[in-house]
């Protein structure tokens, strides 16, 4: 499976649940496909994004 196929599959699985990735996350996906960012960069982005939300919920 190519990198592009893997991302297409992952996004498709998200859509099965009636969800849609944010435009910002879609851009990260495209950058990763082009080799401009790494999976570590994407993980850091997601960790930061959801850490902020978790902190806001616990406040």
List keywords for this structure.
single chain; 59 residues; mainly alpha; 76% helix; globular
Question: Can you describe this structure?
Answer:
- The protein has 59 residues and is an all-alpha fold.
- It has one domain.
- It has three helices and no strands.
- The protein is globular.
- The mean pLDDT is 87.
Short summary of the structure?
The chain has 3 helices and no strands. With 59 residues, it is mainly α.
In terms of topology, how is this protein built?
Blueprint: H1 3-16, H2 23-33, H3 39-58
Amount of helix = over 70%
* Beta strands, count: 0
Secondary-structure element pattern, one letter each: HHH
Shape: globular
Oligomeric form of this entry? single chain
Overall mean pLDDT score?
87
Total of helices = 3
Share in β-strands: under 5%
Helix/sheet category: mainly alpha
Give the N-terminus to C-terminus distance in angstroms: 42 Å
Number of domains: 1
**Low-pLDDT segments, ≥5 res:** none
The biggest sheet, with number of strands, parallel, antiparallel or mixed sense and barrel status, is: none
Q: Compute the gyration radius: what is it?
A: 13 Å
